[in-house]
Amino acid sequence: MKHDLMEALDAMKKLSPLLLAGAGYLFTYYNSKVGKEREAQIDRVNEQVKDLYGPLLSCVTASKSAFDAMIGQHSPDGTKAGFVRAIKDNPDSSEAVAYRQWMKEVLQPLNDKAANAIVDHIDLIEASSVDPLLLKLVAYVKTVRVMMSRWEAGNTNEWSALTYPDEVLPFVVAEFKRMKERQAQLLGFNNRFQTIQSKL
Fold first, then answer.
1. Which residues lie below 8 Å from residue 145, measured CB to CB, with a gap of 6+?
2. Cα–Cα distance list, 191 to 42, 176, 180, 185 (Å)
3. Quick check: 22 pLDDT over 90?
């Protein structure tokens, strides 16, 4: 019996390095796989922020600020409704001329960049389908292109068949925030990001 025990211990001594090597291999393989998956997630979120949600947030926010500035500067009563009414009542009014200039030089270039970010990076959207707000923005931008080409042809009474989807700004802000929170979590900065956000 003692001899059998000694043989078993001796066999275990011989197998120990193999078992340790096998366990080490499995541990390394698992950690490498988890690390690569995490790295891929970080790369994707970074790409979403850099190529889609960041540019989209910048353009939509700047467009809203510029639109508000245009209304404040050119609306007869300081309201969007008053501005639109003045333009529709007289397509040759100073308000209408200002509107066409702002659309050409400020608003449409920003809107084009926002629409291009969506179209060029649609694969970076998280959901299984594209949110209708984003599609409305792209459609609006394309109809404005038609309106502007008609303005250039002399038809200053032309209006876009679609209106700008005002709800797109809060949607993009929420999506950008969600992406930044996920990015911070994957990078291990979650607590620091929440502290910074609470101060804003």
1. 108
2. 17, 18, 12, 8
3. no
